[in-house]
Predict the structure.
Amino acid sequence: MFFQAYFAKMNTGGGLMQMKLIRKRRNGYALMFAASICLAVWLGATFMLEAVFVFGAISLIFLLLLVRQSRRLYDATLIWDNRILAVPSVLISTEGNLRQADTEETVVSTFGMIIGSRIYRWGLDGVHGVRLHAAQIDKERMYLAFGNADQTMRVELLHGMTQKQALLDATQKLLHETGVTADITGW
Amino acid sequence: MNRFKSFNVRRLSVAGFSFLFAYIMSFQFEGQVLYSLLDLRGTDADRYILAAIIAHFAGLFTSGLFVKSQAAAKSMMIGGMGLCLVATVPFFFPLPTLWMGGLIVSGYFSGCAVAAWGFFLRAFTPKNERIKSCADVLIYSNLLMIAVNVVAMNRSTFIGLSLSMLCLVIGAVFIWMLPLEQENEQNKTFKNKTHGGIKNPLILLCLFVFIITINSGLMYQVINPAFEHLTGLVSWYWAVPYIVALAIMRNLPMKAKRSRILYIGMAMIIGAFISFMLLGRNTSDYLTVDTLMLGACGIFDLFWWSILGEMLDYSDNPAQTFGIGLSANVFGVLCGGVLGMAVTSMGLPGAEVAVIALTVVCVTLVMLPPLNHQLVLLLKSHAYLAAYDNMSQSQQTDIVRQVKTLDPLTVREQEVLQLILSGKSNREIAGALFISENTVKTHARSIFSKYDVSSRAELISTLLKNQTVG
């Protein structure tokens, strides 16, 4: 799989917005789970067994969604807390062809990346999990390669840095946190 | 001279606790004196016994909340024993309402006093010798209990009650004579090194104690009534195999692998229940069943008491750790008692009772290897960390470099690792590096993965095991 993310315009707080959205969704699932469990218990008390099975199954689905959303929130919080670079907004495209315009913030962090509503994790599952392999930075763009033994992904984003010192700070932080030395070209 | 002084202080502390424990075992905690008194007045015993056990559990569990120093521990022990004394007086008179209140008060405060002794066990018994102090208190208190039981059952219940109270008075005097000493530097270092390290082993130990003690509860309710007709023999022989097992375990060489003896204990329990099933109810049958059962109890009790004693080094509050560990024992007795009562009230045949007991033994068997592993790692980690602390910066760096990783550590991971090896908790590391606790946990997991280990204790053990531990 290969895709690119392009810088579009400056704005801030997209990552936080994303986390708020995930939290809201998680709370919604928690509420639905609690409601369906209560209903199942109430129906059980009135001996409506078929309905109990239906609401039991619905509860189970909401529980799974709740667990999934809680994990997403945990990952997103971890990524946000350890951000290295916040690219205010992105334009995502597949290789060569523009696929999707997105005006949300991209956060690059020690433990992954948040692009719009998507979360890409690395460095969270130990030495055999998905890890950041390489980083390359030129005057305009930053290329990140990450993956595990089976699959590798490559992200390309416009970093928006004009000062060399800012670039050096970012690469230094990247090395400190992830152990990946960024390859700087064209500066 | 100093060694002589500390030896005497240790003996005082052991004697004080032994007398307190003798009172608890002979009177309050399903003791023969209490049973005889309740029998004498024709009162329903179950209600009283249950109230005393629950109060004792609460006392053990909550003592750590208000006993936070050696001075407070001393006050709690003396004050608690005084209150127990006052609460026992109504038992000389036919006042059942006061009995219930007295049992609840004395049960609670005796629990607090027992837990508070954790401070003195840590302060006055050197590390690695706590197994001996624990064995001593269990042996002396059981000998005293046998003496009180024999008097109560063969002479007069009230003389037995008076002797129980005398135990309290003597115990309080011994505790009053104990000096209040500054905690030694070693203990202070230990405490700071093991944040977050004691919780899991303590939970595991409590679970182990709880499960193993269910057997005792079952035994009280199922085996004891079967040999009720042998009153004279039961009054003195009951705890003899227990004391002998404790004495053997106490005098084993330090190098002996005590964990292996646990398996002998398991075999003895299994043997006891099978004997109970197959044998009759005469004197020789009682001797066989009781020897196997109480011998095994002695082995298990000393095993977990000594581990609890060693754990006190890793605790900020020994009264809390000691109390929680012992409360698991009381809770196990309580649950075992309820299970036993349920079994006897259902009138299950002996074979089915034995199957229930054997199931408990099997569960315990499964728990033994991970428990041992965790505890050994914890103790090793402590010794390694103490040695690591005394090394120079360059030696510390060399140690970390010597062990090969699956992948090089990042600079951030190296910082986290150094702080782990300094004995810091996740929270402290987060504070020192200005990162969140979850971030520290994630870095720690990554470090474990790179060293191919599964826990902090295993990481410390892997990194430092080849070093000379001073």
